[in-house]
Amino acid sequence: DPDRLQSTAMELVRLPVDVILTDSGTASIAASQATAIIPVVMGVVSDPIGIGLVASLARPGGNVTGFSILSPELGTKRLALLKEAFPAAKLVGVLLNPASPVTGAQQLAPIKDAAPALGTELVVAEAQSHHAISAAINGLVVSGISALIVVGDAVFHNERKLIVDLAAAKRLPGIYPEREYAEAGGLIAYGPNVPDNFRRAAGYVTRILKGEKAGNLPVEQPVKFELVINLT
């Protein structure tokens, strides 16, 4: 429940803890708003500069550092891969969460920019919850889409089984942001390896506990990307 993040972050600060490790931009914002002193290590965040978490990737400053997954730029690649797999796809649906701090312009704009050159038109549907996801995908199908892109989002990741099951029921080929979607039954996934980010984040936690300042550790980009195709 994203609405509980702020109170949960404050609970950690009151304990207090030595380091806070976060998953997603929303959780990272909650942690940074709860404390300017306790170090925060972002395991996964799409655009830490754009959402105001760090001053720069090289020198974050403050108490926040960690690992980005470059989600906005990957939308273009996902659309190209989807079009390569399904050349006849002309109308493509995009599922996004308007409540996510990096969903709007940051993730959608690159996909929109790439669509004309690839001979596709986009239909965008928004969803923020379990029930809204079902309605959004059903609405996209009614609009006549022949393929689906799901943008990176923590809510969608948690609801990935629902999303891929709905797509399968509608015989709708889709491309997703992480391999976990393909493991849950989705057709194609392309993006950074999220578990690898968290393994690297563990190293940052160790360095901070040994005395280094979070603001002096650069925000690092992913080093491992995966194209996963579900052959079933």
SSE layout and pairing:
Layout: H1 5-14, E1 20-23, H2 25-34, E2 40-45, E3 64-68, H3 71-85, E4 91-96, H4 104-114, E5 121-126, H5 130-143, E6 147-150, H6 154-158, H7 160-169, E7 174-176, H8 179-183, E8 188-192, H9 194-209, E9 225-229
Parallel strand pairs: 1-2, 2-3, 4-5, 4-6, 6-7, 7-8
Antiparallel strand pairs: 8-9
Helix pairs in contact: 1-2, 3-4, 5-7
What does this protein structure show overall?
Helices cover 41% and strands 19% of the residues. It is built from 9 helices and 9 strands. The strands form 2 sheets. It has a 6-stranded mixed β-sheet, sandwiched between helices. Helix 1 packs across helix 2 and helix 3 packs parallel to helix 4. The protein is elongated and about 55 Å long. The model has no long low-confidence stretch (mean pLDDT 92).
Brief description of this entry?
By secondary structure, this protein is an alpha/beta fold. The chain has helices at about 5-15, 25-35, 70-85, 105-115, 130-145, 155-160, 160-170, 180-185, 195-210; strands at about 20-25, 40-45, 65-70, 90-95, 120-125, 145-150, 175, 190, 225-230.
Characteristic key phrases:
41% helix; 9 strands; alpha/beta; 232 residues; single chain; elongated; six-stranded mixed β-sheet; three-stranded parallel β-sheet
Helix content: 40-55%
Major sheet, described briefly? 6 strands, mixed
Number of strands: 9
- The coarse silhouette is elongated
For the biggest β-sheet, the strand order reads 5-4-6-7-8-9
N-C termini distance: 32 Å
